[in-house]
C-alpha cells in the first residue's frame, strides 16, 4: 500500500541452524563478516522467523484478549444476576480485562520453562565454585603454614559438605586435582584430566547461559511485537470520542517507550524468585564455614533489599509521571511539527519553543529523580559485597576467631555471586518489573478506550475486499432491494458532556440511485450526518439502516506516504480500464502529465507535494474507484477550479456514478438544480428537504441563499499549487530535475532516505555530549570522583589480603607493626569511605547527564523549528518524532546507565589488574593476551552492532509514521474497510524492524558467548599456571586466593565491560542522531541587525514589489516561480487566480520567504532579504488554506502568548460570529472538534486580532458555505479596508470587485490588471475562466466587474 514493492528478503539462517550452530551462534558469523567489511543496509536484513512474525503474534494475543474480554463480560452478567435482589450492592465495580493475564496466557509457560533452566544453572553450577576454591587454597595453606586447616577434622562441616557435593562433577574433579598437591599417589596425567574437568564445568555454564539469554530476550521481543500489534489494531477501532482523548503523541509514546520495557524487564524477571532461593542455600553454606558471623553478613546484605524495594516502588511512581510528561512533550512537538508552516508565518517559533522547553523542564525534573534513584542502586553494586564482607569479618574477629585465606576468599567468592544476584539482578528486577507493570497498565488503559460500535443487525458491507468479488449486478440487486439509507429520529452528539445534540431528530429515506445534496451553514452538522451514516458517530436515539457498501471522500483529503496510484487503488486490485476511467472523470489526466513520475510519483505523509485541488481529486478518485453502492462525498468540489469542478460534477458525480446512491455535501449551490433531492440542515436539524423546485415553491430560508447566490453562482477558482500549509512535501522534488520530459518518466521515483551516518561514533560526539553538560571542569571533577571511588574500593580489597597475610604469618604471636585493632579500624574507615564517595560520585554523574540531555533536546528543538520548509517537506513526522521520542528516551535513560557502567567497569578492571599484578606478576601475561583478543573481538562486533543499531532506528521510523498516518485517516480507512490492508502493512513494517532487532540481540549474545569462550581459556591458563610455576615461597595462600578470586571476577567483568562499552557506543548513535538534527540547514536570521532594523510603524503603506523573483522548493528543483516582476500598490485589493498548479500558493510562500528565493521582494521599499524574518513576517497576516489550530482553549488559539486584552479577543469573535463558543471553549489537537469552516473563522479572528497592514487569504473560503463566505468577505472589506489584501481566489465572485486581478500560469504572471480590463482581452486567460462558469454566471460576474470598474474610474 505504501507504493513500494517489498523485495523478498533472504531466509533467516537461524531457521535451519543445527543445535551446534545455535549453541555457538555460528549462524550469525556471515552477518559479522559483512558488517565488518561494509555498513549493513536494509537489504541485508533477513526475513523474520515465523515465531516472531507480527501477524501471527497479533492474531494470537488478539484472540486471548478477546477471550479475556468475553470471560469478564460473562462474570459481570453473572454478578448482576446474583445481585438483582440486593439493592445496596447493585452498583458492583466494573471488571476490567487484565493485559497482564493475557500476556501470561500467551507467553507464561515458555518463560517459566526458561526460568527453571536458569535456576538449575545458577544454583548448581555457580554456587559450588567457592567450595572448590577453598579446597585449592587449603592445599597451599597446608604447604605454607603450621596452623591446622579448618577442614582437617573428618567430621568438620566443610568435610561433610565436600561429601554432600561430590555428586556434582566439578567438586569431584577439583577434589581429585587438589589431592595431587597433597600426595604423590595421583599421576600428573590424572591431575591434568581433573583440571580439564574443572575447566569443562565453567565451559558448560557458558553453553547454558548464552542460549538462555538469547531465548529470554527473544521472548521479550515477541511480547513487544504482540503488544504493538494489539495497540495498532485497537487504534483502528477507536471511536471518534476516544480519538479526542488520545493524542497521536500518546499512541506514539506507547509504541516507542512503553512496549520497550518488555525487552529489558524480562531479563531480570526470574531473579525475583531465584535470588531469595539462592540466598537461602548460600546462608546455609556460610553458616557451615564461619558460623553465626556468616548469617550476620548475609543479613547485612539483605538489609539493602527493603531499601531497594522502596527505591524500586518510588522509581515506578516516577516512571508513570515521566510517561505522562513525555506524552505531553511529544504531543506538543507533534502539533508544532504538523503546523510548522503556519507557525513560521505567524512568527510563533520562539514562544512555542518556550512551551516545549517548559514541558521538557518538567519532564527532566522527574527523570532526574529517577536517575538519582538509579545512581544509588548502582552504587550498591560497588559497596554492598564489600560492606557485607566487612561486617562478616568484623563479627568473626570480634567473636575471637582468626581469619584465614581460604575463609576470606571463600566468603568473597560467595558474596560476589550473591552480589550479582541480589544487589544487581534482584533490585534491577524490582525496578524494571515495577516499570513494566506501569507500562502494561498504560497499554491496558489504551485497550479500554471506547470503540466504534457497528450494530451486527445492520448491513453495512464496508469491507471492500469483498466488494471486489461481488459482481456489479449482484450489488445492484442488493441496493435496489430496499432504501439505501433509512434514518428515523436520529439524535447524536460528539461528546457526552455537551448539553446540546449535534444532530436532532433527523429522519431520512434515501432510495437507491438518488443523488442527494446536503447543504447548510458552517457547523450545522453536514459532516456529522455523514459520520453517523459511516457509524463513526453513534446515535443516542433513533435508528439507522444502511443497505449496501459505502465509499467515502472526506472533506479534508487524506493521503498516506506512497505513490499517487497506491493512494487511488488503496489496496485493491488494479483494473486498468476502470482506473483510466476514474482518472479521466476526476480530471487527473493533466496533473499526471505535470507530476514528475506521473501516477507513480511518491507523495509525502499527507500528500504535501500536491496542491489542494490535486489532493482533493485523488481523495475523490479513491472513493470512485472503490465501486460501492453508496457514495458519501464530503464537499469534494470546494478545492478545485471553477471549470474543473463543473466537469467533475457532470462527468463524475452525475454521469459516471449514475445509478449509485450519492450523498453530496456541498456549498456550491449552482449544482442543486441537477440533483434528485436537497436536504437543508440548520443547527443540527433538517430545515427542509425536497427537489430544487419543491424547495423554491416552499420559499424556505434556503431560497434566500439561492437568491443571493444567483448573482454569484459557482466560482470555485483554483486550488493552491502550494505545499500544504502544514508541512511535509513529498520527496518528488528531489528528483524532479528531469521533470520536463514526461514521455521518458522513470519507472519508480526514489524516496529520500533518512539521514544516517556510518562508521564508528566519532570522538567529537562524546565530547559534544559531555560539553552539553556545562563546563569541562565539572566533567574532570566527576572523573576524579570516579577514580577516588575505585582507589577506595581496590584499597579495601588489597588491605584485607594484607591483613590475612599478617594473620597467617603471625601464628600464635602477633608480629606486625599494625595491631589487630588498627587493622579493624583501617578496614572500617576504608569501607565507610567507599560507601560515601560512591554515592557522591553517582549522584554527581547523573546530574551531569541530565544537564546534557536537557541541553541536547533544546538545541535539537530549536534547530528543527528554525529549519527551512524543505526539511519538513522531505522528512515525515514519524521520522522527526522518532528522534524526539525514542532517541531522546535513550539519551535520557539508557545512555547514562551504559556510560557509568563503562566508566565503573573500566576503572574496576584497572584496579583488578593492579591487585593481580601485585599478587603474581606472571598473571599479567595471560591478562594482556586476553585483553588484545577482546579488543579485536570488540572491533569486529562494534562495526556490525553499530550499523545494526542504526538500521534498527531507521526501520522503527515507518512504524511510527504508519500509526500517525492511520490515526489521521481513520474515518476514510474504516469507510473503505481497509483496516485489514493497513494491519498487513503495519505487520510488514514491524517485521522489518523485528529482523533488525533480532540480528541486534543475536549479535550481542554471540559477542558475549565468544568473549566467555576466551574467558574460560583464561581461567584454564590461570589454573594450570600453578602446575607450571616452580614451587616457591612467593606463592602464599592469600596471594593465590587473591589472584584466583580477582581473575574469575576479571573475566565476567571483562566481558560485561566490553558489552557495556559496545552498548555505550550503540546508545551514542542516539546522541549522534540528535546532533544531526541540531545542525540542519536553517532559515536566515529571525531578527534584523541593529542598523537594518525597520521602524516600528513599517510598513505604513503596505506596498509590495517583486523584482526578477525566481523561487525553488529545493536547489535541485526547476523554479516554480519564474521571473516575477510586479508592484502591488498600498492598500490595494488584489485577487490571485489561475489553474491548479499555476503557482498561486507558491507566490505566497515567496512573499513569506518559505523557500529558496532569487531576486528581491520589497515591502514599502525595504528588501525583505536584508531584514530578520520575524521583522517582516510579523507584519503580514494570513488566513491559510488549511487552518492551523492546536489543543487548548479558543483564547490560546487566538492569542497563544497573552499579548492582547480579552476585549480585543471578544470583539474578534463577535466579528466572525463565534461569540457563543466563548474564549474558554476547548479545541482538540488539530481543531478536530470544529468543522473546517469554523476553523477558518478562528483563523480570520486571529487575523483581526493581529490587525496587520498586509493580509493574505490563501483559499480562505474553500470549505465554507455561502453565508459564511459572505460573512468573511464582509468582515475583510470592513476590518481590512485600509490594508493591502491579497486573495488567492476560490470563488470568482470574491475577487471580481478587486482593484486588480493577477492571473498565474505555470509559475508566471500571465495577466495583471483590473478584472473588467482583463475581460476585454479576446482569448485572455481570465476571460476563458469566466466563460467556463457558464453563460448565466459569466454575465453576472462581468456585471460585477463593470460596476467595480465604473466606481474606480469615477473616483
TrEMBL record:
**Where is the sequence biased in composition, kind Basic and acidic residues?**
459-479
What keywords tag this UniProt record?
ATP-binding, Membrane, Nucleotide-binding, Transmembrane, Transmembrane helix, Transport
- Predominantly, its location class is membrane
Q: Where is the ABC transmembrane type-1 domain?
A: 167-423, 780-1066
Describe the location of the ABC transporter domain by residue ranges.
486-708, 1104-1331
Which residue intervals make up region (Disordered)? 459-480, 709-755
Taxonomically, the superkingdom here is: Eukaryota
Question: According to its record, how does it sit in the membrane?
Answer: Multi-pass membrane protein
Record flagged with keyword Repeat:
no
The molecular function terms in GO held by this entry are: ABC-type transporter activity; ATP binding; ATP hydrolysis activity
UniProt lists compositionally biased (Low complexity) regions at: 715-736
Q: Where are the transmembrane segments?
A: 107-128, 191-214, 264-286, 292-311, 372-397, 417-438, 779-804, 824-850, 894-915, 921-941, 1009-1029
Its localization reads: Membrane
Q: Name one GO cellular component term.
A: membrane
Q: Which Pfam families match?
A: ABC_membrane, ABC_tran
Record keyword Electron transport present:
no
Among PANTHER family, the record links this protein to:
ATP-BINDING CASSETTE SUB-FAMILY C (PTHR24223), FI20146P1-RELATED (PTHR24223:SF448)
Q: What is this protein called?
A: Probable multidrug resistance-associated protein lethal(2)03659 isoform X2
Amino acid at each position: 500500500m505504501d507504493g513500494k514493492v517489498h523485495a523478498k528478503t533472504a531466509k533467516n539462517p537461524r531457521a535451519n541452524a543445527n543445535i551446534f550452530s545455535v549453541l555457538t551462534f555460528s549462524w550469525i558469523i556471515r552477518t559479522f563478516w559483512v558488517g565488518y567489511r561494509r555498513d549493513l543496509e536494509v537489504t541485508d536484513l533477513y526475513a523474520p522467523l515465523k515465531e516472531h512474525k507480527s501477524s501471527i503474534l497479533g492474531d494470537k494475543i488478539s484472540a486471548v484478549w478477546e477471550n479475556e474480554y468475553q470471560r469478564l463480560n460473562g462474570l459481570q452478567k453473572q454478578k448482576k444476576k446474583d445481585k438483582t435482589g440486593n439493592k445496596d450492592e447493585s452498583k458492583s465495580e466494573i471488571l476490567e480485562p487484565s493485559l497482564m493475564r493475557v500476556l501470561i496466557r500467551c507467553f507464561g509457560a515458555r518463560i517459566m520453562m526458561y526460568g527453571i533452566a536458569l535456576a538449575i544453572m545458577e544454583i548448581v553450577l555457580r554456587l559450588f565454585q567457592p567450595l572448590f576454591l577453598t579446597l585449592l587454597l587449603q592445599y597451599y595453606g597446608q604447604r605454607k603454614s603450621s596452623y591446622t586447616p579448618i577442614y582437617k577434622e573428618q567430621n568438620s562441616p566443610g568435610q561433610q559438605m565436600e561429601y554432600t557435593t561430590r555428586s556434582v562433577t566439578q567438586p569431584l574433579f577439583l577434589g581429585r586435582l587438589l589431592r595431587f598437591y597433597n600426595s604423590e599417589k595421583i599421576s600428573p596425567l590424572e591431575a591434568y584430566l581433573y583440571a580439564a574437568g574443572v575447566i569443562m564445568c565453567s565451559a558448560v555454564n557458558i553453553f547454558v547461559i548464552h542460549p538462555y539469554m538469547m531465548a529470554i530476550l527473544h521472548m521479550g521481543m515477541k511480547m513487544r511485537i504482540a503488544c504493538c500489534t494489539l495497540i495498532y489494531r485497537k487504534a483502528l477501532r477507536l471511536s471518534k470520542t476516544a480519538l479526542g482523548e488520545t493524542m497521536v503523541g500518546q499512541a506514539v509514546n506507547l509504541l516507542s517507550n512503553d512496549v520497550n520495557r518488555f525487552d529489558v524487564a524480562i531479563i531480570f524477571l526470574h531473579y525475583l524468585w531465584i535470588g531469595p532461593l539462592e540466598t537461602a542455600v548460600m546462608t546455609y553454606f556460610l553458616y557451615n564455614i564461619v558460623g553465626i558471623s556468616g548469617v550476620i553478613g548475609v543479613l547485612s546484605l539483605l538489609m539493602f533489599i527493603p531499601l531497594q524495594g522502596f527505591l524500586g516502588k518510588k522509581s515506578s511512581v516516577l516512571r508513570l509521571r515521566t510517561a505522562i510528561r513525555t506524552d505531553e512533550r511529544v504531543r506538543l512537538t507533534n502539533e508544532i511539527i504538523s503546523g510548522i508552516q503556519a507557525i513560521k508565518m505567524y512568527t510563533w517559533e520562539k514562544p512555542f519553543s518556550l512551551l516545549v522547553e517548559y514541558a521538557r523542564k518538567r519532564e527532566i525534573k522527574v527523570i532526574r529523580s529517577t536517575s538519582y534513584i538509579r545512581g544509588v542502586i548502582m552504587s550498591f553494586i560497588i559497596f554492598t559485597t564489600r560492606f557485607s564482607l566487612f561486617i562478616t569479618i568484623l563479627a568473626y574477629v570480634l567473636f575471637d576467631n582468626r581469619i584465614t585465606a581460604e575463609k576470606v576468599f571463600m566468603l568473597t567468592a560467595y558474596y560476589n555471586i550473591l552480589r550479582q544476584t541480589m544487589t544487581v539482578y534482584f533490585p534491577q528486577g524490582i525496578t524494571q518489573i515495577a516499570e513494566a507493570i506501569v507500562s502494561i497498565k498504560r497499554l491496558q488503559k489504551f485497550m479500554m478506550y471506547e470503540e466504534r460500535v457497528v450494530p451486527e443487525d445492520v448491513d453495512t458491507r464496508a469491507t471492500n475486499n469483498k466488494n471486489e468479488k461481488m459482481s456489479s449486478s449482484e450489488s445492484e440487486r442488493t441496493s435496489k432491494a430496499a432504501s439505501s439509507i433509512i434514518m428515523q429520529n436520529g439524535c447524536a452528539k460528539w461528546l457526552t458532556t455537551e448539553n446540546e445534540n449535534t444532530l436532532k431528530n433527523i429522519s431520512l429515506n434515501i432510495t437507491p440511485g438518488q443523488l442527494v445534496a446536503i447543504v447548510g451553514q458552517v457547523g450545522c452538522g453536514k459532516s456529522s450526518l455523514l459520520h453517523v451514516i459511516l457509524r463513526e458517530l453513534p446515535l443516542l436515539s433513533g435508528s439507522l439502516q444502511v443497505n449496501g457498501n459505502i465509499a467515502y471522500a472526506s472533506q479534508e483529503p487524506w493521503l498516506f506516504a506512497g505513490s499517487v496510484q497506491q493512494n487511488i487503488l488503496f489496496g485493491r486490485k488494479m483494473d486498468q480500464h476502470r482506473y483510466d476511467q476514474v482518472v479521466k472523470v476526476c480530471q487527473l489526466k493533466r496533473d499526471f502529465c505535470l507530476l514528475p513520475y506521473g501516477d507513480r510519483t511518491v507523495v509525502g505523509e499527507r500528500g504535501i507535494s500536491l496542491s489542494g485541488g490535486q489532493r482533493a481529486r485523488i481523495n475523490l478518485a479513491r472513493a470512485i474507484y472503490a465501486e460501492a453502492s453508496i457514495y458519501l462525498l464530503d464537499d469534494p468540489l470546494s478545492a478545485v477550479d471553477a471549470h474543473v469542478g463543473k466537469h467533475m460534477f457532470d462527468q463524475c458525480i452525475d454521469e459516471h456514478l449514475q445509478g449509485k446512491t450519492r450523498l453530496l455535501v456541498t456549498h456550491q449551490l449552482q449544482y442543486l438544480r441537477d440533483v434528485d433531492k436537497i436536504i437543508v440542515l440548520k443547527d443540527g436539524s433538517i430545515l427542509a428537504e425536497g427537489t430544487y423546485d419543491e424547495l423554491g415553491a416552499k420559499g424556505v430560508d434556503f431560497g434566500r441563499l439561492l437568491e443571493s447566490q444567483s448573482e454569484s453562482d459557482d466560482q470555485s477558482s483554483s486550488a493552491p499549487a502550494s505545499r500544504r500549509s502544514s508541512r511535509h512535501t513529498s520527496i518528488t522534488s528531489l528528483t524532479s530535475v528531469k521533470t520536463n520530459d514526461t514521455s521518458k518518466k522513470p519507472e519508480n521515483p526514489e524516496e529520500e532516505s533518512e539521514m544516517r551516518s556510518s562508521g564508528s561514533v566519532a570522538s567529537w560526539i562524546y565530547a559534544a555530549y559531555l560539553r552539553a553538560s556545562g563546563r569541562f571542569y565539572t566533567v574532570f571533577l566527576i572523573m576524579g570522583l570516579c577514580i577516588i571511588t575505585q582507589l577506595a574500593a581496590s584499597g579495601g580489597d588489597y588491605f584485607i589480603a594484607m591483613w590475612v597475610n599478617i594473620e597467617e604469618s603471625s601464628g600464635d604471636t602477633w608480629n606486625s607493626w599494625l595491631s589487630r585493632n588498627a587493622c579493624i579500624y583501617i578496614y572500617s574507615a576504608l569501607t565507610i569511605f567507599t560507601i560515601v564517595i560512591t554515592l557522591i560520585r553517582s549522584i554527581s554523574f547523573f546530574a551531569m547527564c541530565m544537564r546534557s540531555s536537557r541541553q541536547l533536546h533544546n538545541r535539537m528543538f530549536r534547530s528543527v523549528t528554525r529549519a527551512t520548509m524543505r526539511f519538513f517537506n522531505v522528512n515525515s513526522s514519524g521520522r522527526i518524532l522518532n528522534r524526539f521520542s525514542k532517541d531522546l528516551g535513550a539519551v535520557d535513560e539508557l545512555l547514562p546507565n551504559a556510560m557509568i557502567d563503562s566508566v565503573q567497569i573500566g576503572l574496576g578492571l584497572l584496579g583488578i589488574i593492579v591487585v593481580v599484578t601485585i599478587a603474581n606478576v606472571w598473571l599479567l601475561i595471560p591478562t594482556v593476551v586476553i585483553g588484545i583478543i577482546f579488543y579485536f573481538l570488540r572491533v569486529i562486533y562494534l562495526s556490525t552492532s553499530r550499523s545494526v543499531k542504526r538500521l534498527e532506528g531507521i526501520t522503527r521510523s515507518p512504524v511510527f509514521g504508519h500509526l500517525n498516518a492511520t490515526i489521521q485517516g481513520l474515518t476514510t480507512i474504516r469507510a473503505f474497510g481497509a483496516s485489514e490492508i493497513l494491519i498487513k502493512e503495519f505487520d510488514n513494517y514491524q517485521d522489518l524492524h523485528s529482523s533488525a532487532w533480532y540480528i541486534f540481540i543475536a549479535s550481542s549474545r554471540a559477542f558475549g558467548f565468544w568473549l566467555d569462550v576466551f574467558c574460560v581459556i583464561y581461567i584454564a591458563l590461570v589454573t594450570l599456571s600453578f602446575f607450571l610455576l616452580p614451587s616457591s615461597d612467593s606463592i602464599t595462600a592469600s596471594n593465590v586466593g587473591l589472584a584466583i578470586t580477582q581473575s574469575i571476577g576479571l573475566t565476567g567483568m571483562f566481558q560485561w565491560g566490553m558489552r557495556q562499552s559496545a552498548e555505550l557506543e550503540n546508545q551514542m548513535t542516539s546522541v549522534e542522531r540528535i546532533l544531526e538534527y541540531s545542525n540542519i540547514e536553517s532559515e536566515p536570521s529571525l531578527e534584523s541587525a541593529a542598523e537594518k532594523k525597520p521602524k516600528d510603524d513599517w510598513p505604513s503603506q503596505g506596498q509590495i514589489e517583486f523584482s526578477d523573483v525566481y523561487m525553488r522548493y529545493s536547489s535541485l528543483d526547476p523554479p516554480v516561480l519564474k521571473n516575477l516582476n510586479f508592484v502591488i500598490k498600498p492598500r490595494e485589493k488584489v485577487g490571485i487566480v489561475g489553474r491548479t498548479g499555476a503557482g498561486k500558493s507558491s507566490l505566497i510562500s515567496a512573499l513569506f520567504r518559505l523557500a529558496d528565493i532569487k531576486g528581491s521582494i520589497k515591502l514599502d521599499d525595504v528588501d525583505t532579504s536584508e531584514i530578520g524574518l520575524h521583522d517582516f513576517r510579523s507584519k503580514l497576516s494570513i488566513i491559510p488554506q488549511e487552518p492551523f489550530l492546536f489543543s487548548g482553549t479558543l483564547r490560546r488559539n487566538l492569542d497563544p502568548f497573552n499579548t492582547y486584552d480579552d476585549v480585543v479577543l471578544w470583539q474578534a469573535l463577535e466579528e466572525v460570529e463565534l461569540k457563543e463558543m466563548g474564549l474558554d471553549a476547548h479545541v482538540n489537537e488539530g481543531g478536530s472538534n470544529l468543522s473546517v469552516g469554523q476553523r477558518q473563522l478562528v483563523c480570520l479572528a486571529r487575523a483581526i486580532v493581529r490587525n496587520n497592514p498586509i493580509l493574505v487569504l490563501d483559499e480562505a473560503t474553500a470549505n465554507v458555505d455561502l453565508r459564511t463566505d459572505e460573512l468573511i468577505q464582509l468582515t475583510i472589506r470592513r476590518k481590512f479596508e485600509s490594508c493591502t489584501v491579497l486573495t488567492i481566489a476560490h470563488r470568482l465572485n470574491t475577487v471580481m470587485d478587486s482593484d486588480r486581478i493577477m492571473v498565474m500560469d505555470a509559475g508566471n504572471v500571465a495577466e495583471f490588471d483590473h478584472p473588467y480590463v482583463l475581460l476585454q482581452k479576446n482569448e485572455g486567460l481570465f476571460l476563458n475562466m469566466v466563460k467556463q462558469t457558464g453563460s448565466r454566471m459569466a454575465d453576472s460576474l462581468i456585471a460585477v466587474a463593470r460596476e467595480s470598474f465604473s466606481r474606480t474610474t469615477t473616483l
